[in-house]
Amino acid sequence: xxxxxxxxxxxxxxxxxxxxETFVADTLEGLIxxxxxxxxxxxxxxGFGPDPRQYPDYKGPRYxxxxxxxxxxxxxxxxxxxxxxYFDTATGLLASTxxxxxxxxxxMTVVTRFSDWRSVAxxxxxxxxxxxxxxxxxxxxxxxxTTGRAKAKPTASSR
Length: 159
Prior knowledge:
Elements: E1 2-3, E2 8-9, H1 14-24, H2 28-36, E3 40-48, E4 63-70, E5 81-88, E6 94-101, E7 108-115, E8 118-120, E9 123-125, E10 128-133, E11 136-142
Antiparallel strand pairs: 1-2, 3-4, 4-5, 5-6, 6-7, 7-10, 8-9, 10-11
C-alpha cells in the first residue's frame, strides 16, 4: 500500500483502504486538508449533547461539530462525501469522526473514535484510535510510546 499525499495505490483489499482512510482523512489533519484545498467546512454548532427533555440532568461530554464535504483522497471513485468531526467542547480534542461510506452498497456507517489523549512536548496525541463499521469494531490502534519535540519559536521570516 502506498500513499504519496495525493494518491493511494496498491490496496490488497478494502481493509487496507479503511486503514488509510482512518489515518489520512478521519483525523484533524484530514479536516484541515479539506478546508485548505477548497472543500466545504461548516461549524454546525458548539456544546451539543443529548436532548435535555430526555436527559434533564445530563453531565457527560458535549461536542462542537464540524461538517466537511470534499472529494476523497483515498477512495478512487472521487465522489464527494460528507463527514462530521466531533470535538470535545471542554478540551477541544477530536473525539470522533462519523460518516456514511458511499463506496459500499448499501452505504456503510463509519465511526472513528479518538481517545486516551496525552500531551507530549506541548502537543496532544491520541493514545487509542478505533474504527467501527456498521457498529462493529474493525480495528484498534493503541499507542504505547509517543515522542515529540518542543514547538519551535517562529522566526521573522516564518511569520
